[in-house]
Design goal:
- The protein is of the alpha/beta class and 353 residues long.
- It has a single domain (7-351), classed as TIM Barrel (Alpha-Beta Barrel).
- Helix content is 33%, strand content 15%.
- Residues 1-24 form the signal peptide.
- Residues 8-322 form the GH26 domain.
Length: 353
């Protein structure tokens, strides 16, 4: 069972349900619970794969209707979609520790919810690759933080979207001002972090490799991969914009790349995959609304059967006017219809069970 909703959330969800009943009475379509999840015994694996369905998750921030804390922003997101999230996506920058706040720890411990933490141990990958006593202490402190919520597990990525931070590569063009290090430095960092966690007996981490899904840097994908024994999941982005407004094409491009790269030495097909961030910006509002409908169609058709999670990026990110937020256009104007389209996606029966 999920924990009882706080009073404020319960009121909103009750109001939403009442509105849905009223809408149905005047002929407006509403989602109904058409799945048979009550008859299924849906187990969650050791690496947090739901055997019955994909997870629904979100990064939620910068909505003025709620306080800045991650718990309040998540609560507001859940109020808007009328249901709790399976996964809550948070970030820890270099110098910070994962699960450093009471809000993150509360979400990590919330029943039927998993925390997904992006963590950057160091700005320079080689600094966290072993041999630096102070940095190794920092890594050990991160492990201790995560151990405090055991046996509850969390998803953990070490420096998400590393492609745009690779400073040099002999065979791939890299971002001009990137300065984190080489792909080998990245792998060494991952290995050191994972091995230090393992040495301390930390067993409540599910390790996720997180890619950008940016065609210009596809050549870096295999070079950055830490190795099958170090990775539990592979996830990637599925952002759209005015020039890339087809959800299935955006997902399918990288999905096919992973399939093609999979080999005995890099057995990507043996891993569960997921969408770690997605959304729509720099587009017309018609395109943005349609993107969520396309996503719903892809999920309903099980077009990408290896995808075991869909996590929306409901946050401005690098967009100053907040266009990536589900409920706003690129100029920061609220758009109830866009929110409605995403709410319908989130309430698709595929995500029940």
């Amino acid at each position: 069972m999920r924990p009882p909703l706080r009073k404020k959330r319960a009121i909103v969800i009750f109001t939403t349900m009442a509105a849905m009943i009223a809408a149905a009475a005047i002929g407006i379509p509403v989602f109904a619970d058409t799945n048979d999840s009550g008859d299924r015994d849906c187990q969650v694996s050791e690496i947090l794969v739901n055997e019955c369905r994909p997870w629904l998750g979100a990064r939620a921030s910068d909505y003025p209707q709620a306080d800045d804390s991650v718990t309040e922003q998540v609560a507001h997101h859940e109020e808007r979609i009328g249901k709790p999230l399976d996964i809550v996506h948070t970030f820890a920058a270099e110098g910070q520790l994962p699960l450093r706040t009471k809000e993150e720890r509360a979400l990590a411990n919330r029943e039927d919810t998993y925390l997904y933490q992006n963590w950057k141990p160091a700005a320079k990958w080689k600094d966290a690759a072993g041999g630096d006593a102070e940095m190794d202490e920092h890594i050990d402190a991160a492990a201790d933080n995560i151990a405090e919520v055991a046996p509850k597990k969390i998803f953990l990525t070490i420096h998400h979207e590393p492609e745009n931070d690779v400073s040099s590569d002999s065979a791939c063009d890299t971002k001009e001002d990137a300065a984190a290090g080489t792909a080998a430095d990245y792998r060494d960092m991952w290995h050191n972090v994972r091995e230090r966690f393992d040495a301390k007996g930390i067993d409540n981490v599910v390790w996720v490799m997180d890619y950008m899904n940016y065609e210009a840097w596809d050549c870096l994908v295999p070079k950055l991969y830490p190795g099958d024994e170090y990775v539990d999941w592979v996830m990637f982005n599925a952002y759209g914009d005015g020039n890339k407004a087809d959800f299935a094409e955006n997902v399918g491009r990288f999905y096919d790349l992973l399939n093609g790269l999979s080999s005995e030495e890099m057995d990507l097909k043996s891993k569960p995959w997921g969408i770690v961030e997605w959304g729509m910006s720099d587009s017309t509002q018609e395109q943005a609304r349609d993107y969520y409908e396309q996503a719903a169609t892809a999920v309903e058709k099980n077009q990408f059967p290896k995808l075991s999670s869909y996590m929306i990026f409901d946050s401005p990110g690098t967009h100053e006017d907040g266009g990536l937020r589900v409920g706003y256009d690129d100029k920061g104007k609220a758009d109830a219809e866009e929110q409605k389209r995403y709410t319908e996606f989130a309430n698709n029966p595929v995500f029940e069970g």
